[in-house]
Write a structure and sequence with these properties.
The chain is mainly α and 53 residues long. The chain has two helices and no strands.
Length: 53
């Protein structure tokens, strides 16, 4: 938090970070490698689709 000079920029970063983190946080230790890779691929495809709009 010390690197942000303005509270507004910190809030902007945190809101973007939270949405990205929640989208890609798959709790890897709970899945097999195969399922983890499938879930990551699906999440990345959805993220790219949202970014293209």
């Amino acid at each position: 938090m010390l690197r942000f000079r303005r509270l507004r920029s910190l809030q902007k970063f945190v809101s973007v970070h939270a949405s990205v983190y929640n989208h890609f946080n798959q709790e890897r230790h709970l899945y097999s490698r195969e399922n983890f890779k499938l879930n990551c691929t699906a999440a990345l495809a959805e993220w790219r689709q949202l970014g293209a709009v």
